[in-house]
Here is the input.
Amino acid sequence: MGVVSRDQFQGTKKTPASQDPQQDSLTHVELMYHATPLSMESADRVSFSVSQAPEEVTISRGGNVTFYCIFPIFKEQSWVRILWWKHGENEYLRSSADRRKRFGQEGKVSGFFQLLGATLGDAGIYHCSVIRHGLLGRNGTGSHLIVHVAPTPLKLVSKTSEWDSSVPLILVCETAAFSPENFTLTWYKNGVKAASGIITRTVQNSEGLYEVCSSLSEMRPVLSDASYTCSVSHVSLKTPAIATLNTSDSKQDYVGMSRYYSGFRYTVGGLAFLLLLIIAGARYKSR
Here is the structure.
């Protein structure tokens, strides 16, 4: 049997049996139970409401979440079903199509929808629909799912400038791929916020995630005990992520690099001088 769309429950007429998703055991695994009576007036005269909980939830990619659909207990004996759908889509959710989705009953007046291993594509607003006698009764208020990917771990490295000898040191801070895009990246030198020499670039990769690369150019002579920190704040993090580099830890790298470039200059100079001697000798012999 084909997939049943939400449009089939939008009218006031009873859904034909051939189109009733309840008849398709492979299409839906929803909540269905025999409602118990209310002590008040007939449910047909009551304008009941359907609520959902939580209204909004934020989880990290790969996490699990459960939504609840809450509705009243009806006086008359009636069959009630709960269907779930995602805002912007025309089909009800099906566990047969995605095994990460589970549906069931939680008590007498609520149904649940559990999503396992959330992906970025799962983010959105989810609604439940209460179906009575094959008719759409009410839609739930909606539950907003936000899926985050943290920008950690951070990578902080140092290097010398290849194009500007007046810049003794350049530090580069790179984030891991993350989502959503909004973030704050701050540089500190010896605990004091840096305000100049900073270049930050953001790119979006093929997965739709964001990656940030930020550089700090140190214009002053590098001290042997200086400390540089890259701090990143993001909605997925309870506290900012930080990466710290101490120049004392990499002093040998600076010294070794300096010796390399000095030795290279001396070697080139020596070869040039030797070449001049050979040319001068050749000219002298030709006379």
Remarks:
- The chain has two domains: 6-147, 155-264.
- DSSP finds one helix and 18 strands in the chain.
- The mean pLDDT is 76.
